[in-house]
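So, can you check what follows?
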Amino acid sequence: MRFTFPHSHAFRGGRVTVENDGTAGPGCLVEFGDGVTVIAEWQAEGGGIRLAVPDYRTAKGTPVTARTWRLARSGDGPWRSERQS
């Protein structure tokens, strides 16, 4: 799986593109709009996705602490992030 956030970090209500690349397992790539890519873990959760993103630094060097996000589709529209922890 591949998850792409258009900004340098995820935030509540932010858009995210979800691409199923056909690989099995919980490992995935998370790409941010500033070019940073991290390896994270995901799992299906009801009609959504639970995405655990590790600590990382933005391209400008700002530290971002690890967080778990619930990703949900807004109706038949785009995927959005909802912070879990």
